[in-house]
């Protein structure tokens, strides 16, 4: 039986291990489509899946990787045929179902998105869950009426995956982008992506969060959460909105009702994982066309063997932009 390489995490009462192992097709979970994975990517959630108490992985041994893109090698699902290029992100992938850090994956056809014209498999993974989340955030804000004329849009955690892609997409769409980062060395990177103003983490995370503060931004894309989200809510302009997707800055949000009831501010929750397939397909089409970000400035490529270092770095907030994992 043919064997292949995968990054496997295992947790027993005695120890936690993580590393590249040789697997066979019989090790893969059930599913109707087998994919030769060409690229995967590194997301914050994958970082959590690679540590003992990340609360992502439920059963061990396990292959993490919430994103993958590759070519169908066999299919019992009439919608997919050998040779089709596909993307899979979210659902149970890399959480309860073996994920993308593997040369082969067996998946449910319901989770697969045909690779849209205008994207390569590598570009699809440079976007990945992070870019999909940034695009979904922009889509939800625009559904609520956001247009460039409304005023500047803030992106928090701006050098990260969601953040970098949001800055690039918003700037290409004509928005005036303010980007906040804790990395003093990355201001030029953010300006190159299209940010007009670069703020520090402290600028957007107040020591004392006021119920209402000076109105600054028409909207915000926020993958940070925590005290940053509470501060940003108090500074959103009348009728504006914040699309929150993440928790790198913490899960407790010490806000009040005031921004919501006195300024009509909306808080939009962004979930990429169970995003319905019809909307998912529309967002990927946009990512391949009018929302396609400038990926080459953002992407960095690694091998399966370099994953442990990248996963540790994303948890320390040290990765810049997007990291794709090459499996071919
Ligand atoms: C790409 C996406 C992301 O990056 S999202 C950010 C990464 N995700 C996380 O950090 C979440 C990690 N999980 C946790 O911290 C915990 O599971 C929890 C705080 C979300 C909930 O913990 P708790 O111990 O309070 O409850 P349970 O784990 O028993 O779950 C209660 C209830 O919620 C359902 N649930 C759990 N996780 C999720 C999820 N990710 N999405 C949707 N629903 C979830 C779980 O099934 C339980 O429901 P029930 O009907 O009672 O079975
Ligand atoms: N809701 C959803 O469907 C999704 C949620 N997410 C969440 O979004 C967040 C970002 O994900 P990625 O872009 O993949 O991660 P990333 O690590 O690439 O980006 C996170 C950014 O936050 C910054 N950061 C870290 N600690 C911080 C702090 N205390 N205060 C302010 N900034 C801080 C980092 O420096 C980095 O720039 C994560 O919490 C992730 O779980 C990501 C994708 C989908």
From TrEMBL:
Its EC number is 1.3.1.95. Residues 19-325 form the Enoyl reductase (ER) domain. It holds the Pfam family ADH_zinc_N. SMART domains: PKS_ER. It comes from the Bacteria. This is Acryloyl-CoA reductase. Gene3D superfamilies: Medium-chain alcohol dehydrogenases, catalytic domain, NAD(P)-binding Rossmann-like Domain. The keyword Amino-acid biosynthesis does not apply. GO terms for molecular function: acryloyl-CoA reductase (NADH) activity. The keyword Transmembrane helix does not apply. SUPFAM superfamilies: GroES-like (SSF50129), NAD(P)-binding Rossmann-fold domains (SSF51735). It comes from Geobacillus thermodenitrificans. PANTHER family: ACRYLYL-COA REDUCTASE ACUI-RELATED, SHORT-CHAIN DEHYDROGENASE/REDUCTASE. Keywords: Oxidoreductase. It is an enzyme of class 1 (oxidoreductase). The lineage of its organism: Bacteria, Bacillati, Bacillota, Bacilli, Bacillales.
């Amino acid at each position: 039986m043919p064997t292949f390489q995968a990054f496997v995490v295992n947790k027993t009462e005695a120890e936690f291990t993580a590393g590249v192992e040789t697997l066979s097709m019989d090790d893969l979970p059930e599913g109707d489509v087998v994919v030769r994975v060409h690229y995967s990517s590194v997301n914050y959630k994958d970082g959590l899946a690679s540590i003992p108490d990340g609360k992502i992985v439920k059963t061990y041994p396990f292959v993490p990787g919430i994103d993958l893109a590759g070519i169908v090698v066999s299919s019992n699902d009439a919608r997919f045929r050998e040779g089709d290029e596909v993307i899979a992100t979210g659902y149970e992938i890399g959480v309860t179902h073996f994920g993308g850090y593997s040369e082969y994956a067996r998946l449910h056809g319901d989770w697969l998105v045909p690779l849209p014209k205008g994207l390569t498999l590598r570009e699809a993974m440079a976007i990945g869950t992070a870019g999909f989340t940034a695009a979904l955030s922009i889509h939800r804000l625009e559904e609520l009426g956001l247009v460039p004329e409304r005023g500047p849009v803030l992106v928090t955690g701006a050098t990260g995956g969601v953040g970098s892609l949001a800055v690039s997409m918003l700037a290409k769409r004509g928005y005036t982008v303010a980007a906040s980062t804790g990395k003093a060395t990355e201001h030029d990177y953010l300006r190159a992506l299209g940010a007009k103003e670069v703020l520090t983490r402290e600028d957007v995370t107040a020591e004392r969060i006021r119920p209402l503060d000076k109105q600054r931004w028409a909207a915000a894309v926020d993958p940070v959460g925590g005290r940053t989200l509470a501060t940003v809510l108090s500074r959103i302009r009348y009728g504006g909105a914040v699309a929150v997707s993440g928790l790198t800055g913490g899960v407790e949000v010490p806000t009040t009702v005031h921004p919501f009831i006195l300024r009509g501010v909306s808080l939009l929750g962004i979930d990429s994982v169970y995003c319905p397939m019809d909307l998912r397909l529309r967002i990927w089409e946009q990512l391949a066309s009018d929302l396609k970000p400038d990926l080459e400035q953002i992407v960095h490529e690694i091998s399966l063997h370099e994953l442990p270092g990248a996963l540790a770095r994303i948890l320390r907030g040290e990765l810049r932009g997007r990291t794709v994992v090459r499996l071919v």
